[in-house]
Write a structure and sequence with these properties.
mainly beta, Neuraminidase, 2 helices, 24 strands, 6% helix, globular
């Protein structure tokens, strides 16, 4: 399986529309990029893979990892070349997120586990990269669906979403000997939620309401009122289901929010800072030179804005519904963020 060939991927991306059939429907101005790496299948037949998160090794970026959920089994861990390195069959987890901190010898990942209705907590050894399931925090609410993680002032937080439109904000304590959590507040939207991401710098959570649109929530307010950024069916290409949501984190709170418009195999990019103006959309087409198929019907995604070997501007990692057909060998695809910047004409910002 090929590893890092970003220069080739960039060159091919610029001519992709001329030599590869684009997915349909395509909206005016939609661009096309290609994946540079794909992981091994997440395992299990049918709809299995769901959501990825990247963990950066603190001293050797080449040893960084991709954590991916298999919602029929548990957590699967991949190396940057896409090979599987660890599997933790702990139950029916749907979404996963990671936060890192140099002030402790481990990093923390959390996942939504609807088998036990809990926030599942994992510790990642900062030297070996070994991932261990440490415990579960009961949510006392049926079927936690999406999840995102934040870290501020030495404390970990979790945003948990539900199919009834509920968003919970939790304080999380994660230690090798014990995990615990406290529900801080509950915010209610009208219909099913899944993907979310903390923007600690700007005090926001971005959350996808699958059939309605993309929202921001000022989570530190006493009674947060969600603010609609973009509606499904509007001119920017956002369509149902609005599933994965993540951020390319630029310095001083700048950057880009990426949302998956699942039913039309499209991703829509917005400015991270209010009023979150749309900056374009793209699809991920087949990279025939590397034997990587196109990306369809993406559920979860993660954006990483740090430098990785071969990817100095970071990466976008997305779930692929079909490999190559829907429900077959679902896996995760890695896209060079520099290709997205070029395709959409985004200004090249300093990373956070």
């Amino acid at each position: 399986m090929p590893l890092f060939r970003p220069a080739l991927a960039t060159a091919l991306a610029l001519t992709a529309a001329a030599c590869v059939s684009a997915p349909v429907p395509v909206i005016e101005g939609q661009k096309f990029v290609m994946a540079s790496v794909e992981t091994a299948p997440a395992g299990a037949k049918g709809d299995a893979a769901d959501d990825p998160a990247l963990w950066l090794h603190p001293t050797d970026p080449a040893k960084s990892l991709i954590l991916g959920t298999n919602k029929r089994e548990g957590l699967v861990v991949f190396a940057l070349d896409g090979s599987e390195v660890q599997r933790l069959p702990i139950g029916l987890i749907n979404n996963v997120d990671v936060r890192q901190s140099a002030d402790r010898p481990f990093d923390v990942a959390i996942a939504s586990n609807d088998q036990v209705n809990a926030i599942s907590v994992f510790l990642i050894d900062r030297q070996s990269g070994t991932v261990s399931h440490t415990g579960d925090i009961p949510t006392n609410t049926i079927e936690p669906y999406g999840i995102c993680q934040g870290r501020e002032n030495g404390r970990d937080y979790a945003g948990v979403t539900y199919k009834d439109g509920t968003l919970q904000i939790w304080s999380v304590s994660a230690q090798p000997e014990d995990v615990s959590g406290q529900l801080l507040k509950t915010i209610k939207l009208e219909t099913q939620l899944e993907g979310c991401v903390f923007d600690e710098t700007n005090g926001l959570i971005f959350v996808g309401e699958e059939d309605r649109g993309l929202w921001s929530v000022a989570y530190w307010e006493d009674a947060p009122v969600p603010s609609l950024i973009d509606s499904v069916g509007g001119p920017n290409g956002l369509v149902a289901d609005v599933e994965g949501v993540s951020i390319w984190r630029g310095a001083n709170g700048a950057g880009w929010v990426v949302a998956s418009a699942q039913s039309e195999d499209r991703f829509v990019v917005y400015e991270r800072q209010a009023p979150h103006a749309p900056r374009g959309s793209f699809s991920i087409i087949a990279n025939e030179a590397l034997g990587i198929d196109e990306v369809t019907h993406t559920d979860g995604l993660d954006v990483f804005s740090g430098a990785l070997p071969g990817f100095p501007r970071g990466v976008l990692i997305v779930q692929d519904d079909g490999n190559p057909r829907s429900g077959q060998d679902q896996n995760f695809k890695v896209v060079n963020w520099a290709d997205i910047e070029t395709a959409l004409g985004l200004p090249v910002l300093d990373a956070e």
